[in-house]
């Protein structure tokens, strides 16, 4: 059984999260997936087409998991820390846009 590391706050978790995303292809795939999630959310709200929300997990997790399994070669942090991991996706996305995390 795998030992699950505990974090007291997101600030403690985020450096770990970035370490789990050291491969640039994995980060780029996360960026694509998160961009699609944002686009789908906007589309669903503007078009009031709520059925588009079904595509959110496919867009978000699909790209991210390909990045982890084929490029990063690790298990996604989502499996152990789902809420911090979701927040980490958006914070890393922001940090990539700001140039704080490389593409």
Q: In angstroms, what is the radius of gyration? A: 14 Å
Structural class: mainly alpha
Count of discrete structural domains: 1
Sequence of secondary-structure elements: HHHH
Q: In what range is the share of β-strand residues?
A: under 5%
Alpha-carbon distance between the two ends: 34 Å
What kind of sheet is the major sheet?
none
Which term fits the overall shape? globular
- How many strand units? 0
Q: Runs with pLDDT <50, length 5+?
A: none
Question: Main traits of this protein?
Answer:
single chain, 103 residues, mainly alpha, 0% strand
Describe this structure in words.
The chain is mainly alpha-helical and 103 residues long. It has one domain (21-97). Helix content is 65%, strand content 0%. Helix 1 (10-19) packs across helix 4 (82-97) and helix 2 runs antiparallel to helix 3 (55-72). The radius of gyration is 14 Å and the shape is globular. The N and C termini lie far apart (34 Å). The model has no long low-confidence stretch (mean pLDDT 94).
Put the structure in a nutshell.
This protein is mainly α. It contains 4 helices and no strands. The protein is globular, with a radius of gyration of 14 Å.
Topology:
Layout: H1 10-19, H2 24-46, H3 55-72, H4 82-97
Helix pairs in contact: 1-4, 2-3, 2-4
């Amino acid at each position: 059984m795998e030992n699950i590391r505990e974090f007291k706050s997101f600030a403690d978790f985020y450096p770990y999260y970035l370490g789990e995303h050291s491969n640039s292809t994995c980060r780029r795939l996360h960026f694509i997936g998160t961009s699609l999630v944002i686009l789908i959310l906007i589309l669903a709200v503007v078009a009031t087409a709520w059925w588009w929300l079904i595509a959110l997990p496919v867009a978000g997790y699909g790209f991210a998991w390909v990045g982890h399994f084929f490029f990063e070669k690790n298990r996604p942090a989502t499996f152990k820390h789902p809420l911090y991991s979701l927040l980490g996706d958006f914070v890393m996305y922001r940090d990539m846009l700001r140039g704080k995390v490389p593409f």
